[in-house]
Specification:
This protein is α+β, with helices and mostly antiparallel strands. Helices cover 37% and strands 12% of the residues. The chain has five helices and three strands. Helix 2 runs antiparallel to helix 3, helix 2 packs across helix 4 and helix 3 runs antiparallel to helix 5. The longest helix has 22 residues. The protein is globular. The termini are far apart.
Length: 198
């Protein structure tokens, strides 16, 4: 009998699950307004989705064109609170919001914004480097969650977004389990070096 594989979320009458607020904000950042502006001041509220389900609604206006923006997510039954100083996007299961290609893109952006030489940095810059490397490693963990048990790569059909497909088509070998683990571990090792350089 084959092992169960992570599946892309199926259509639902409920909003998609945002396992953490960090995941929700990241998803919104990756969905720009029609004018191209990706950020907006977000008011948030907890809402009743019916039954025992609760949701979070984020709304505001685009600073670029003034358009009203709104996102609604389903909240998890148990709130995930990351340990102090750590970045956590999920719970070890595949995201309903971002596909594995998007997670790799996010990891690239966070890690790529860290200076190549981290010794001699002042405390503020070093603190920011720690946050970005922690976010990059956490994003790699999210991509790894899409590897089915016993498999050696993320299935190609798990990648469904335009951004994720662009990452996959550019370098499909990046979705192999061993490559994913090597990159994730490299980010963690660099994070440890930055933390040690006080």
């Amino acid at each position: 009998m084959s092992s169960p594989q992570p599946q892309a979320p199926q259509p639902s009458t409920q909003p998609p699950l945002a396992r953490t607020s960090a995941e929700a904000h990241l998803y919104m950042d990756l969905r720009p307004c029609e004018c191209g502006e990706s950020t907006f001041d977000r008011d948030t509220a907890i809402i009743d989705l019916g039954g025992d389900a609760l949701g979070s609604r984020y709304e505001g206006h685009c600073p670029g064109c003034g358009a009203r923006r709104e996102f609604v997510f389903r909240l998890p039954a148990q709130v995930i609170l990351p340990p102090a100083g750590q970045v956590v996007y999920g719970d070890g299961t595949p995201s309903e919001l971002l596909d594995p290609g998007e997670w790799l893109w996010v990891a690239d952006r966070f890690a790529g914004s860290v200076p190549a030489e981290t010794s001699g940095l002042d405390e503020d810059v070093r603190r920011e480097a720690r946050v970005r490397l922690a976010a990059a490693a956490a994003a790699m963990d999210e991509a790894l969650a899409w590897v089915p048990p016993g498999a050696d790569a993320i299935p190609a059909d798990a990648v469904r977004s335009e951004l994720g497909l662009a990452v996959y088509e550019d370098e499909p070998d990046r979705f192999a389990l061993d490559r994913l683990e090597i990159v994730r571990d490299a980010y963690r090792e660099l994070l440890e070096r930055v933390e040690a350089a006080r």
